[in-house]
Amino acid sequence: MKRIHLYDTTLRDGAQTRGVDFSGADKRALALLLDRLGVDTIEAGWPGANPADTALYADLPRLRHARFAAFGMTRKAGLKAAEDPGLAAVLAAGTPAVCLVGKTWDFHVTSALGASLTEAIDMISESVGHAVEQGREVVFDAEHLFDGWKANAPFARDCLRAAADAGARWLVLCDTNGGTLPHEVDRIVGTMADLLGGDRIGIHAHDDTGNAVANSLAAVHAGARMVQGTLNGLGERCGNANLISLIPTLTLKLGYETGVTAEAMAELTQLSRQVDDRLNRLPDPRAPYVGAAAFAHKGGLHVSAVAKDARSYEHVAPELVGNERHIVVSDQAGRATLMLRLAELHLPLAADDPKLADLLALVKGREAAGFAYDGAGASFELLVRRALDAGAPATYFRLAGFRVVDERRRAADGSIETLSEAQVELEVGGRPVMVVAQGNGPVDALDAALRRALEPVYPSLAGLKLTDYKVRILTPEAGTKAITRVLIESRCPSGERWSTVGVGSNVIDASYQALEDALVYRLMTRGATVERAVA
Ligand SMILES: CC(=O)SCCNC(=O)CCNC(=O)[C@H](O)C(C)(C)COP(=O)(O)OP(=O)(O)OC[C@H]1O[C@@H](n2cnc3c(N)ncnc32)[C@H](O)[C@@H]1OP(=O)(O)O
Ligand SMILES: CC(=O)C(=O)O
């Protein structure tokens, strides 16, 4: 079985993602997660490029499986390799491997470096040779190799030869601008592998045409044995090849060996979400293998077949990558969908149970009115439990009323101020409670007032966060009287997320419904009771 060397650049190319700013602590924590995953090399940054990366390389965490590589560029034009301060900083990091990027597109050499083609080849050769003399394994990132090959193949080839002759262990063909297509990658990598030996060729693909994973697979198919990529496809512009997609594809489908064990693969979904959490990003529900929708079945025909054999609509078993199957109930559902979803909630109903038909009619009626349960599993569960009177949530609180005031005024200094304030009256634990809270907007104020009223009685609501709030106009033709749907995602401190929905012609009222469901769901799943909570 052929072994693929996994080279992770999340902490270097991933740091070039717009909106991403890793702290040293983030990089250390992610390096440990990558090591646990089983990648072979971790490129943690560019020592010498900024104080944070230099400090990180001076105090790298201890790894069990992987090794660190320091990234940098070949010597600058006009300098000797041994005298180039940038190269010296990369080597000073003391990592067993260094990755040096060099330009292999003639246009870049003349336009960006302002150097001659001969000098560009010398820069590569001398820099690689210098690092090899220092006892480092050199990974040569051939920047723009594919565009360079199309423009001037002999020059691109000579750049790679220079790196190889100077002792580079790996020649990584970079699709830096991400514009190369899989059939071109296959052809060019195949030519290079024949010329220089496939077991020293690597691929570094960017996703500008949505083909970074496909291009990496094409390169492997053509003989490449190192794949560079990032967690969740982070990286410059549209990102790099996503290792979270590539790893299961390489191993489960193509039978390649990597350092990732079956046990580590079963933690892939969790890892992907940990990365998003650290970056304060919402996980992509449609991410291959690990997204919440990757094994979510919605169409009634799909679910009916999945109920008989999950392989009918699943390309791999979700457990292999630590994901899980979801049966999504909506107006696209049939009885089979509902039965499966109910079984998941431990509320099984037989196919001929009249309650099943009633429930399906209820769900489809609510969907027709604007509710969307495929994105609001918690509201669906509350609806079902109430309709079947099965483990229905207690009346944790009763709303007597609320008032929301939104004020926009010109301050004395001429600036515009806005203020939102909500007053909520509830009955909680048999007692009336009235609170007032302010917020960034009316929904934030309403949320704050509800929490202020409930948290003293229900401590398990502390730390709950509203992580997403979406409003959709369902009847745009009705103008400002339109029906709106509000979807809210909530998260508790332990990381569990749930989604709720509200619908109405008043957006604040729809928001209240979704907020109330979010709080009730949390209390129900925590098994809260008024008495226990009050005590
Ligand atoms: C394809 C990639 O993603 S490569 C990685 C890209 N990542 C980054 O650039 C992030 C980190 N970069 C940085 O912090 C800075 O750019 C530094 C510290 C590396 C360099 O900063 P500066 O010395 O101020 O140079 P600056 O960034 O303005 O320009 C790059 C210089 O490197 C030269 N250069 C670019 N690529 C190479 C190369 N492969 N080999 C040698 N020199 C190169 C350019 O010609 C330019 O030289 P000039 O200043 O004489 O015009
Ligand atoms: C080296 C690198 O990041 C690139 O060529 O895209």
From TrEMBL:
Pfam families xref list: HCS_D2, HMGL-like, LeuA_dimer
Residues of the signal peptide: none
SUPFAM superfamilies in the cross-refs: 2-isopropylmalate synthase LeuA, allosteric (dimerisation) domain (SSF110921), Aldolase (SSF51569)
Pathway: Amino-acid biosynthesis; L-isoleucine biosynthesis; 2-oxobutanoate from pyruvate: step 1/3
Biological processes per GO annotation: isoleucine biosynthetic process; L-leucine biosynthetic process
CDD domains according to UniProt: DRE_TIM_LeuA3
Group of enzyme by EC: transferase
Entry's EC annotation: 2.3.3.21
Keywords: Amino-acid biosynthesis, Branched-chain amino acid biosynthesis, Isoleucine biosynthesis, Transferase
Pyruvate carboxyltransferase domain mapped to chain residues: 4-266
Gene3D superfamilies associated with the record: 1.10.238.260, 3.30.160.270, Aldolase class I
SMART domains to which the protein is assigned, alphabetical: LeuA_dimer
Catalytic activity reported: pyruvate + acetyl-CoA + H2O = (3R)-citramalate + CoA + H(+)
One GO MF term: (R)-citramalate synthase activity
InterPro entries given in the database record: 2-isopropylmalate_synth_dimer, AIPM/Hcit_synth_CS, Aldolase_TIM, Citramal_synthase, LeuA/HCS_post-cat, LeuA_allosteric_dom_sf, PYR_CT
NCBIfam families: citramal_synth (TIGR00977)
Family: Belongs to the alpha-IPM synthase/homocitrate synthase family.
Protein name as annotated: Citramalate synthase
Organism: Aliidongia dinghuensis
